[in-house]
């Protein structure tokens, strides 16, 4: 892990809880309406990493994002299985899986 971490703040997600400003006031302040504002360029030195990490983890709406993280989960999506149209049951409104209306 490098000596610095980088974060960004997605202000469109912020709901104004102010937890980030409580944990790391050097890096997060609140605007006139109570929403968070990132102070500085988002580069966090080693000595302040714990406070900013706590702010990131405690944000109820996940508005603080560590740059370099991948969101959402990169798990590949399995391709859809197409039904075999030759064997598709259509009598009496019965679908391939046995559902009826």
From TrEMBL:
GO molecular function: 3 iron, 4 sulfur cluster binding; metal ion binding
Pfam families: Fer4_15
Keyword Lipoprotein appears in the UniProt entry: no
Cofactor field: [3Fe-4S] cluster
Classification via InterPro entries: Fe-S_cluster_ET
PANTHER family with a match to the protein in the record: FERREDOXIN (PTHR36923:SF3)
Protein name, UniProt field: Ferredoxin
Organism: Mycolicibacterium iranicum (Mycobacterium iranicum)
